[in-house]
Amino acid sequence: MNEKELAELSGGVESLGFRPLYRQVRDRLIRRLVDGVWAPGEPLPSEIQLAAELGVSQGTVRKALDAMAAENLVVRRQGRGTFVARHDEERIMFQFFKLVGDDGQRTFPQSKVLALSLARANAAERAALKLAKDTRVIRIRRLRSIKGAPVIVENIALPEPMFPGLAAMEPPNNLYGLYAMRFGVTVASTREQLKAVAVCEADAEALGATPGVPALKIDRLALSLERQPVEWRVSVCLTEKLHYLSELR
Amino acid sequence: MNEKELAELSGGVESLGFRPLYRQVRDRLIRRLVDGVWAPGEPLPSEIQLAAELGVSQGTVRKALDAMAAENLVVRRQGRGTFVARHDEERIMFQFFKLVGDDGQRTFPQSKVLALSLARANAAERAALKLAKDTRVIRIRRLRSIKGAPVIVENIALPEPMFPGLAAMEPPNNLYGLYAMRFGVTVASTREQLKAVAVCEADAEALGATPGVPALKIDRLALSLERQPVEWRVSVCLTEKLHYLSELR
DNA sequence: TAGTGGTCTAGACCACCGA
DNA sequence: CGGTGGTCTAGACCACTAA
Fold this sequence. Notes:
The first copy, chain A, is an alpha+beta fold and 249 residues long. Chain A has 7 helices and 10 strands. In chain A, helix 1 (21-34) packs across helix 3 and helix 2 crosses helix 3 (58-70). The relative contact order of chain A is 0.12. Strand 10 (242-248) of chain A pairs antiparallel with strand 7 of chain B, so a sheet runs across the interface.
């Protein structure tokens, strides 16, 4: 069953001309995730079932699933099965939320929406989200607090066509969970650019801080499974009692 | 040859009571790296040779080497062999140096040593580096410039026993390369804590900046292969034309 | 106890590299 | 061309989970 099918899907750069079978299997399974064949938290079929269905050996399916587990797309549990990764607060917290208290405590912040609007994308938004001219975006501005103390003010921009009707909803605390549950959009990776800045007047007022105080600016672009821009978010954080934790290996 | 040897080595937390063979193989190979059996850049024996020598199958050696490649300890090249990872500027740049120009350019900075001294570790150094009382540390203060413009001032503390004689040397641009080549100490991972701060008088003078300007403070602890603290480094960075890049998946 | 993922082996063949 | 790592298969057995 060694047919080198000519599936063409998203993914990393390939040497073009050779596409390992397990890579093709991975891509086909990711396609099913994108299509919502299995909901987050649900178990996939067992390795043996998938192998039989796809006409490859169990070892090849295993290698594909291992790769997906390394990408945090599925969770494997010995004796139980392989499950579609969930975007609950716990996962987000450890995967994408890197702000930690100086005492080492991680606390997921509460959020308060300050403004929500719908408008044509401006030049910056079009560039960041790779949008065509005249595409509409949803803009959210919110204040996030940890233990009652306001520490982050953030401006979020979303392509409206990807999230139809979101502008009319009450945004929950955990936006990535909403994207996944209600719009089938999975945030698979992010690219963050950090700078130190002086807090501007508007942000200072929202945060209850003195204008000009140093703050950490986090410019984040979130990408979907297909590596399409999903969300652009600029956060301004007071880091007096917090820090951004980055572990490199 | 399925003897579950009772090798006890560094590494992640184990369920204690079961230690996969490939894990044991990995640990034995890491032990050899630590002992300097193969120098950085040198090829390891082929999978088949290692398998024969260690009395396991080629597949098991492969799994161990794959794990080590994922940890950036070795580099595998199809058709050539498996090589001990080098700590040259290129590798450091992409693995541990996360500052990128706003134009997307990565430039390894030039360094100028401002001060170098040898002293008993103070309380903060003992805590960070997990040192016994009265251990001596080497302190280096240096200024780093990109394209001639000073952008980083950093204070480095090293356990003197781990780097005997370093205090009398002229520190090169790339310290991690020196640690590896001259002292057999490999920096395998780092933990960085980022904050926004106002530049203090002393740092401002070194950087040629105005005191009070916002800057990015990076508090980095570097760990060896055995997960022992190797270096404590606090960098203060001007991020007007730079940013810290963090990619999360 | 049945079913899952995890480990280990053995062997075949493929892609890639350098002499 | 020979040697390397990379892929794929098939099958045995182990560790873990839930009923």
